[in-house]
Amino acid sequence: MILGPPAQIDDATLAFCATLSPHAPFYVPVEPAPHAKVAYCFDNSVAQAAAHGGEAAYGWAIWHWPGRWFEAEHHAVWRRPDGSLLDVTPQLGDPERILFLPDPEAVYDPSTFRPNVMAPDGGNALAAEYIELVAERGAITRKYWSPGIEVLPLFSEEDRARLAPIDARMAALRAAMSL
Q1: CA–CA dist 49, 47 (Å, integer)
Q2: Structural domain span for residue 58
Q3: Tens of pLDDT, residues 56-109
Q4: Are residues 147 and 76 in the same domain?
Q5: Of the residues 119, 153, 170, which one is the last residue of a structural domain?
Q6: What's the pLDDT tens digit per position in 92-103?
Q7: Could you tell me if 170 and 126 are in contact, meaning their C-beta atoms sit under 8 angstroms apart?
Q8: pTM of the predicted model, to two decimals?
Q9: Which of 36, 59, 85, 148 is deepest in the core (most CB within 10 A)?
Q10: What is the pLDDT of residue 143?
Q11: CA-based end-to-end distance of the chain
Q12: Which residues of 107-136 are buried (b: 16+ CB within 10 A; e: fewer)?
């Protein structure tokens, strides 16, 4: 799977972003802070602001697997005192930049889980099925989530049985889309 920031801000990218926020997306450079942790963008941005001024800016990191899907991940970047933005969180794949969609309404609340938002790219039927399975899987696993959880929970036997065929089909779809 090759999920990274969209190579360009085209009509398809803008249409996906418009489903999330009325603001325009733009690229933000990635320069991980020395002690920043992967997947802790909210903590990393707040810590950077506390140490160097500025504030956390909230919105969505927009990812794209060309021809497969778009994905929006609730995200925060550091707004420097001069107003420019910098992503201080290490990103998988080490991209030089991310596509950031500002959403001042999406302020981080540790008691509220915001799942990623996905949409197929170009009507890809396999991607559409995969996204439906992601939602089905999330409906099962979300009840195990609680604020601050850092260890994957042990699912009930019933839920493990429900997840097994979903996970198998998702793996088959990922393999088919990787061809």
Answers
A1: 5
A2: 11-119
A3: 999 999 999 999 999 999 999 999 999 999 999 999 999 999 999 999 999 999
A4: no
A5: 119
A6: 999 999 999 999
A7: no
A8: 0.93
A9: 59
A10: 87
A11: 10
A12: ebeeeeeeeebbbbbeebeebbebbebbee
- The two tokens of residue 64 are 């794209």
- Which tokens in the block code for residue 56? 């956390």
Length of the chain: 179
How many domains are contained in the chain? 2
Exposed (0-12), middle (13-18) or buried (19+): which is 161, by Cβ within 10 Å? exposed
- Residue at 69 is within a domain: yes
> In this structure, are 67 and 130 located in the same domain?
no
Q: What's the chain's Rg over C-alpha atoms?
A: 17
Does any domain span residue 3? Answer: no
**Nearest of 126, 128, 127, 163 to residue 144 by alpha carbon:** 163
